[in-house]
């Protein structure tokens, strides 16, 4: 069984190894398998990347990201500049064609609003603006307007789970209520948890995914 100290060393090694991160600015605390990140990074993208890196480490059962974004002087952009860049990024994304998405920025915080046809498209919009310079944080307030039979949604998600080698479908229960999907059960790792959530999100008719999955070393 991995101790908290061993897990701490593994997380630090992963952060040090990742060339996209300035690991010396990131602080790590581990307790009972839960990793808390703090410190400072120079962009929202780097904060997200740190979270992604740690989630790949075996035996991490939960992750709390308290890293603060302090935009470096050479990457500071005005709110108007960020709005223009975000609008262009969204307009050029083929997955979002035909959808009107509004962008508002205040002090580097970017807010997306509007309506799309799937939760996958909602997340795609967030991905499209994640790496823009000057962004300190993103609030994705886009709503989803999609309709499908709950039984069909449930069957499609469960079928997709069974097709994926990285997901143990037997450990996950799928509940559907008016387009909102709730996932419960246990998975073996954070990457498996994220794959399950992403797979459900990409299913036709899904408006929102609530993950109540837990990571268990006994899976």
UniProtKB/TrEMBL annotation:
InterPro entries: BON_dom, Lipoprotein_DolP, Transpt-assoc_nodulatn_dom_bac. The keyword Cell cycle does not apply. This is OsmY domain-containing protein. Keywords: Signal. Residues 3-71, 78-146, 149-217 form the BON domain. The keyword ATP-binding does not apply. PANTHER family: BON DOMAIN-CONTAINING PROTEIN, OUTER MEMBRANE LIPOPROTEIN DOLP. It comes from the Bacteria. PROSITE patterns: BON. Pfam families: BON.
């Amino acid at each position: 069984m991995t101790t908290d100290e061993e897990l701490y060393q593994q997380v630090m090694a992963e952060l040090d190894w990742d060339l996209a991160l300035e690991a010396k600015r990131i602080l790590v605390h581990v307790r009972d398998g839960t990793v808390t990140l703090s410190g400072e990074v120079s962009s929202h993208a780097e904060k997200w990347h740190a979270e992604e890196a740690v989630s790949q480490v075996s035996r991490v059962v939960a992750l709390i990201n308290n890293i603060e974004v302090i935009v470096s002087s050479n990457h500071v952009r005005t709110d108007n500049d960020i709005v223009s860049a975000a609008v262009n990024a969204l307009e050029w994304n083929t997955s979002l064609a035909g959808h009107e998405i509004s962008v508002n920025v205040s002090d580097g915080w970017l807010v997306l609003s509007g309506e799309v046809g799937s939760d996958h498209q909602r997340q795609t919009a967030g991905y499209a603006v994640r790496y823009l310079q000057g962004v300190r944080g993103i609030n994705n307030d886009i709503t989803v307007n999609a309709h499908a039979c709950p039984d069909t949604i449930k069957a499609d998600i469960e079928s997709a789970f069974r097709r994926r080698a990285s997901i143990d479908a037997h450990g996950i229960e799928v509940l559907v209520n008016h387009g909102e999907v709730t996932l419960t059960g246990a998975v073996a790792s954070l990457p498996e948890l994220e794959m399950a959530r992403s797979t459900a999100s990409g299913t036709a008719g899904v408006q929102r995914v609530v993950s109540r999955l837990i990571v268990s070393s006994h899976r």
